[in-house]
Amino acid sequence: MLKEKAMSGHASHAQSMFDVQKAIAAIAYLVKQTGASMYPVMKMMYLADKLHLGKYGRFISGDTYCAMAKGPVPSCTYRMIQHVRGDCDDQVGLGTAREFFSYGADHQIVINKLPDFDELSASDVECLDEIVRVYKNVGRYAVRDMSHDDAWRKAWGDSISSRAKPMPIEVIAAELDNAGILLKHLADSQPGAA
Questions:
Q1: 14 in Cβ contact with 112 (< 8 Å)
Q2: Whose CA is closest to 20, among 121, 110, 109, 96?
Q3: Angle between helices 20-34 and 75-84 (to 10 degrees)
Q4: Taking the model in full, what pTM does it have?
Q5: How far is CA 64 from CA 110, 133, 170, in A?
Q6: Per-residue pLDDT reduced to its tens digit, 85-124
């Protein structure tokens, strides 16, 4: 459970930047531990970020989320994998991912070279490990269903459009048990400052 003290040393996610190296490390960690393809990895990233947000007040790599027809998607991480498979141009250094990954048949993310897992903090690994355990215990379809939560439903709504819809961090935080403390933390432009 998140405590105010635990959050005092973290910058607000709303003001953080996407960390390409952390995202690469997190993807490789999930693929190495589960062998999952791109779509389950995107769902596991969401669940790990949601868990990390609830415990530590931030997402693992500072990504943002959008709701799509088949669930929540980490926006920058997804664009990075699209770049790896050749679907989009390099944006904000996402091309670095091609050094570590290639895209295989059946949407497999192939690890060409292991990244530096020291990019991940102990709390990052804790939350990734928890989601790996869930994935191994219940499987990819249950993980998919878990990602189709109230935050996703609120963002997606009853849309018949295939266009992505933003999932603000506050919408995700509002669905967590400690929403009051968490929303207060996210609204604080200088958390931990006296």
A1: no
A2: 96
A3: 70
A4: 0.87
A5: 24, 24, 11
A6: 877 765 656 678 889 999 989 999 999 999 999 999 999 9
